[in-house]
Amino acid sequence: MSDWAGVFIFLVVAIIFGAGGIVTAFIIQPRRNNPVKLEEYECGLPTVGPTWVQFRTSYFLYALLFVIFDVETIYLYPWAVKFQSLGLFAFIEMIIFIFILVVGLWYAWKEGALEWK
User: Fold this and answer.
1) pLDDT tens, position by position, for the chain (117 residues)?
2) What local confidence, expressed as pLDDT, does residue 28 receive?
3) How big, in percent rounded to 5, are the helix, strand and coil portions of the chain?
4) Entry pTM
5) Which SS3 state, helix, strand or coil, does residue 39 take?
6) pLDDT at position 10, please?
7) What is the greatest pairwise CA distance in the chain?
8) CB-based contact 94:79 (threshold 8 Å)
9) Alpha carbon distance 67, 58 (integer Å)
10) Which ranges constitute the DSSP H helices of 50-116?
């Protein structure tokens, strides 16, 4: 039982910490409506017409692909630094990893996600 005491204490502290943040936010929240929050804030001029603008999904796909291949660099750099000491198994794993990423890049290219329209 004493082995699990640390886990139980950690769980209790985590629950108290999470609930404490929610309770504190509820206590200090403003209770009345603030008319300033309903005013224009970007350019100071009232909007004319519908204000909801739909963005094309290609922008988000482009950003997502950038993040994916940026994360690839995070995995490639430490592997390249320790390349000499890792051995053949790590080399084969990295070849598989790069192959999966190349297949993903090929698929994105085929679907037109990299074309800026």
Assistant:
1) 678 888 999 999 999 999 999 999 999 987 777 777 767 666 666 767 776 777 777 777 778 888 888 888 888 888 888 888 888 888 898 899 889 888 988 888 888 777 776
2) 92
3) 70, 0, 30
4) 0.47
5) coil
6) 93
7) 67
8) yes
9) 14
10) 57-81, 83-86, 88-111
Cβ(46)–Cβ(40) below 8 Å: yes
Question: Contact, 65 vs 113, CB < 8 A?
Answer: yes
Query: Is there a contact between 78 and 71 (Cβ–Cβ < 8 Å)?
Result: no
Burial status of residue 108 (CB atoms within 10 A of its CB: 0-12, 13-18, 19 or more):
middle
Rounded distance, CA 105 to CA 68, Å?
A: 10
Residue 98 CA, chain-centre distance (Å), reads: 22
